[in-house]
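User: My instructor asked us to take a sequence, write out its structure as tokens, and then describe one feature of it. I'm not sure where to start. Here is the sequence I was given:
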Amino acid sequence: MLRFVKILLVGLISIVVLTFVALFLIPNDTYRRWLEETVSSATGRQLTVAGDFDAQSSLFKVHATDVRFANPDWADDASMVTIGPFDAALRVLPLLIGRVEAILDLDGLNVALETNADGEGNWQMGDDSAPPATTVPDQAPASPGVPNWLLASRLHIGNGTFSFTDGASGNSRSFVLDELDLGEKDQRLALMLKGQYLEQPITLGGDLGDVDSLAQGAPADLRLDGGVGDIALSAGGSVAELFAAAGPTLDLVLGLKAPSTQSVEPFLDGSIPDVGAVDFTGQLTGADGALAALDLKLTLDGPDLKAGVDGAIGDLLTLGEMAFKAQLSSDTVPALVETVGVALPGTAPKSLKASWELNGDLNGLALQDLIAVLEDEQVQINLTGKAEDLITQKGLNAQLSATSPSLAALSQFAGRDLPD
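Assistant: Let's start with the prediction itself. The structure tokens for your sequence are:
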């Protein structure tokens, strides 16, 4: 046994020494050509390393500059991906026990995705008409846990840009990635992201759980906090089996806070009125390929509007099994109408209280228990209603009543003189 151990150790040391010698004896241009030819042959696109390329600076380490991956002929730009300084390394000692620990550092990573007028994407490689590869029968299922090589590796990206251009409409969007760090820290898979989208800062930080649980596919406690513009975002809870064939198992609590409804305006084509601060929480659950949003709570809190929505979506993938209850109130309806920009034939009553329920899915959305009360001094207007399906207006039923000292007292709301 002792002799076997000695032979094994001598063999491992010999492999390391031979690899070390090979890396220093083989010219850099040989590595460069091998890398370019291998990637180009596999993808059908030209890979070019136009700048420096060094595979000899240390054991299992590669440094390159000005790396370019070609676009298809129909694309506007010559390159789909460009990378400035590129460094990749494998730690040597962990390899001796079969553990892969990699370090990947990319600076100036630019990825330009686009489609042509026919909807073909520049990320599509080779012949899409070729038959799919035959699956191997009785193959052992892949582990639902995160691969150890990913958990033990570190990724850093700086000064990156990701863009997408729709060839049919000509519309283009880009995301600037100032910095991304992903890797193990204190036995947890840590994440840090800083970037910009539509000139709005984006931040995200925290961790995806403890590495042991992630590797085994067991529940790991995730905690992330960040923001988009002045919108604060948070996520916390349990994740498991991230690489399971049927999809991950999730039990997360999501949160969003914004000082104003106008906080989302930079990401939309139109304008949004400011009707108050936004607070949202919800539970996202998933298992066996199904997703549900439970315990959803949304509130709007402004000087002219108080509103709240509670509910759930039992099937997020199809927007099925929806159930919501909503209520709103305002003691300054005329100011609210002016803020929202709604044109009325006359003036609006001073106060409003309303509540209703929605249940169903995209094939049928029922409105139930609609109650709205508008009041102004001696005038009160009541509206009740329901509908079997709001989408098709099937079974729509509404009742309107008013209490007023005279018909003429309603003239200001109707926008015309009514007889006394």
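For the description part of your assignment, you could build on this observation: The chain has seven helices and 23 strands. Try explaining in your own words what that tells you about the chain.
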